[in-house]
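Hi D.,

Good news: the full-assembly prediction came through. Inputs first.
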Amino acid sequence: DSGVTQTPKHLITATGQRVTLRCSPRSGDLSVYWYQQSLDQGLQFLIQYYNGEERAKGNILERFSAQQFPDLHSELNLSSLELGDSALYFCASSVTSGRVADTQYFGPGTRLTVL
Amino acid sequence: AQTVTQSQPEMSVQEAETVTLSCTYDTSESNYYLFWYKQPPSRQMILVIRQEAYKQQNATENRFSVNFQKAAKSFSLKISDSQLGDTAMYFCAFMSGAGSYQLTFGKGTKLSVIP
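Then the structure:
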């Protein structure tokens, strides 16, 4: 158990819908990272938040957005869902102050299926 | 942009034997970090080992060790005394030491340990 929690474990929805994935980082970790794992694209970095502020963006679609709340939990919002958005979405956390590259610990993931 | 290449999509090894997984990467940076993550059938991403580029000594964690060749941009993982529980996908990952600390992953190697 990494100490990172993600809910829900599984999510099945229809095209055009909107969903919210939730992540709670390890105690003491200030950074949250979101990754997408799909069969065709592999593991891709989406976005990073550090202590409530967006720190870096990767290959994140405009239909996707994220935020980190004062209690440091994070949510990834996916809207206007398409079949191709079906994937495993991971949240990872690290202490990362911005000056040191700390190891990222991953949550169990949320399996999103878009029908 | 950094790239990570894992040239062995699948490998197998007999229980108790030793196996080496290959990884090469491309970067113009001198300060970076390399990781191996394991993803068993449960889909959880588990950190196996971490290597700082500025360290000449190869990292070791119990039965897992790396062969880090900085000039050749090579970072292989050796698993000794393979166990059935080592059956998993193994991902090599790169993290820049400057700016964003996102992970860039290879496509993975599926390792099967045969009893």
